Known about the structure:
Layout: H1 9-17, E1 24-28, H2 36-47, E2 50-53, H3 54-63, H4 67-78, H5 84-98, E3 103-107, H6 113-124, E4 133-137, H7 140-148, E5 150-153, E6 159-161, E7 173-174, H8 181-195, H9 199-203, E8 208-212, H10 217-231
Parallel strand pairs: 1-3, 2-3, 4-8
Antiparallel strand pairs: 5-6, 5-7
Amino acid sequence: MGLKLNLNYEVMTSLYLSVNSDFMFLVMIGPPGAGKGTQAKRLAETLGLSHVSTGEIFRQNISRKTELGLRVKELLEDGTLVPDDLTIELVQDKIDQLVNGSGAIFDGFPRNLEQAKALDDMLLLHDKGVDLAPLINLSDSNIIERLTGRRTDKDTGKIYHLIYDPPPDNANVEQRSDDKRDTVLRRIEDYHQSTVPMLAYYDDRDLLCEIDGDNTIDQVTTALLEVIRGRVFA
Length: 234
Ligand code: AP5
């Protein structure tokens, strides 16, 4: 019997926990603030996948003051993309660690055509490929509201929003340094210039699936799980 479209997030979660898949590789695409991180964390938990966020890796390196962190600190604060060679090298290490697991969901990588092609080459070396590229769409005006209200728990990394998903009183939250209005505008421009031209690369192979990000967090999760069920597990 087929699943009904109105199943809620909790029901979908319990259904997915009983599904076995050898290896699944998803790339989550979308403008800044569309909800990639929020949804990637939920999907990774539900589907038993590793979650890899290049932005998160850069931020961790900045806070640990590593050599990589020192190299990328100013770029992130300005909302400028990190050069491809550095980003691809970082991802190469991750892929080598991940291929023996049950799969991964990448969030924030790839971000342009060159990165998308490099990812395919890296996966191909392990006889694997991208299974699906969910694209979470959100209008520019909504992006600004989402990002200026975002707060992240310093201890757990959990993402909150002051209005839509308020942090508990005792949470140790902070605002990201690249969530200032001017920086957000630069990041949106980068998305249109660098990432939008990449979409055809996945669309041509029928891997791209668009999700409306202007719904509640639970509704977006449910829509993503529906698409994954239909496309990957079919
Ligand atoms: P990265 O961390 O990847 O930032 P981003 O792509 O700009 O995306 P965000 O993390 O800002 O947003 P999100 O889509 O994850 O939204 P979230 O779930 O948090 O990259 C940061 C920087 O690192 C880049 O600028 C660049 O310098 C560098 N970098 C990273 N990857 C790179 C690469 N591949 N190449 C080169 N440079 C790279 O949600 C946002 C807010 O909205 C939250 O408050 C959340 O609670 C709320 N929210 C989420 N969903 C909903 C909903 N449905 N309804 C209401 N509120 C919601």
